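<context>
A single protein, sequence plus fold
<entry> Chain with its tokenised backbone below
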Amino acid sequence: MKIIRKDDVTPIDSSCGALRELYSSGNIDISHNIVTKDAKKHLHKKMEEVYYITKGEGIVVIGEEEFEVREGDTIPIPKNTWHQLKLAKEPFELIVVIHPKFDASDEIFEGEK
């Protein structure tokens, strides 16, 4: 058993800001993200995601709808659903749970086939 401390994980650049991969197994990924810029709209054919906002406020686009989100909100993103994270005013933070494990080849950006 190992305890993973967020501050011990080096952040990497992601499509929406800084990402810390906190846990990864063959079945699930959990990351901490700091959204510092709008992400590109995308979908996943195999993966589903759940966002949990831990700090601040932002905007989540799901399909054609925009939702204002804030600390404490949980946002399920089913597979085959266009989605996007956007800044509202200031950077915001969230935990992202991905099932099955993240696969970059399953990230399809708007305008791609």
Remarks:
- The chain has no helices and eleven strands.
- The longest strand covers residues 17-24.
- The mean pLDDT is 93.
- The chain has one domain: 10-106.
